[in-house]
């Protein structure tokens, strides 16, 4: 049973220079199964972020449909942006519990959940710190905790580690894998990096240049849990090569 | 030689001295100038004479009464002007239509100096407290409005998207995002508004009033009681400083997350 399915989704933005508008994405058709980890890979301007925004309900499709499994209620999503996007006036804990506040959970309960979430992402001891005192990696951990705290149906990650240095990024891959398995959530993640996609995903969707269309839908059959060493195995190399060739 | 990494704050006593020393020097110079120059008191009263007049007006006279009148005008005008500016500024920041409709009138209203409209307002609304409150509100309105618009427009788009991805309601976005995000800029406008409101009240009282500190200045001038003029002026300065200080305190209290305060 897919958690959502997309049919002939197409998104065109209004454009001053072009009466027809800027055709950013589609048409694309695909679906994602529950608890699946899918990475969307593609060149800049292939509409990867647009796809995520449409799934989050931030932009309306110009054509086509997005169907969520649960049709009664609006889908609940957790969104992690390229930048941590924290509220600078809120402490780490207050930032993490924001989704619960929006859902009107009692403050005491929200606080306790946020404490647990902070511990899960390794932020114990920083609950009362302000965002300005956090490093890039820590800030992105807060964003991840915030995106997961309300147990969303779907976790949307828009190049969440793009602004981090290489070492921190690779450390975050391990943490994200662990979190995904612990919380049993469905993930759709946009990335530029082939290694990142192969390290994390069950499946990689490769988009073409604008307007983005699905060029390749590649299952990643590598065993889990995946370790640092796995990146130097022939299987990993073969998949990476396949993706690389498909991009070019 | 060691370079200190952090400037240690000066001790309280030293800061007080830094404030009082120049003030004492100015007062002494003034006293000397007034005595040696041989000016009559209605041209330039000495600080001692002003001080004596102050004490007299405070204890035997009605300085506190006039202060209370002006304070009421200033505070009510500030409150009404800020609230209107807040509501309208929010509407303008959120809606291009509102902006196009209102902006020309608002800018035009700023081209007319308040001193020019004050007599009209006094003619229409009487020489009582109401016309002064109106003048204060008018003068406070514009800076608070501009800062509200700037503050709301500067709310980060990314945070707005975050709230929308969480399906937050309009009210929740207002309450959890727009208010805290725009607060620093809004309070900056309020700080300017607070001092302008004092000017508004005095302008109104100058044009036509039978009470208030502006009226007291008029009385002092009419009776060649220049010491009284000084008393009223200094009281106004103290009033404006206090209001300004209160807004700064409010900022410090509300914006603890910001590092730098003016």
Any chance you could write out the topology, listing elements then pairs?
The complex is a heterodimer of chains A (248) and B (262).
Chain A: E1 2-13, E2 22-33, E3 37-41, H1 48-55, E4 63-68, E5 77-80, H2 92-96, H3 98-102, H4 107-120, H5 136-148, E6 154-158, H6 166-183, E7 186-191, H7 194-200, E8 203-207, E9 214-219, H8 234-247
Parallel strand pairs in A: 3-7, 3-8, 5-6, 6-7
Antiparallel strand pairs in A: 1-2, 1-4, 8-9
Chain B: H1 12-37, H2 47-59, H3 63-94, H4 96-111, H5 114-125, H6 129-153, H7 157-165, H8 170-207, H9 213-222, H10 226-254
Describe this structure in words.
The complex is a heterodimer of chains A (248) and B (262). Chain A is of the alpha/beta class and 248 residues long. Chain A is 34% helix and 25% strand. Chain A contains eight helices and nine strands. Chain A starts with a strand and ends with a helix. The model of chain A has no long low-confidence stretch (mean pLDDT 87). Chain B has a single domain, classed as MetI-like (MetI-like fold). In chain B, helix 2 crosses helix 10 (226-254) and helix 6 packs antiparallel against helix 8. Chain B is globular. The two termini of chain B are 31 Å apart. The model of chain B has no long low-confidence stretch (mean pLDDT 88).
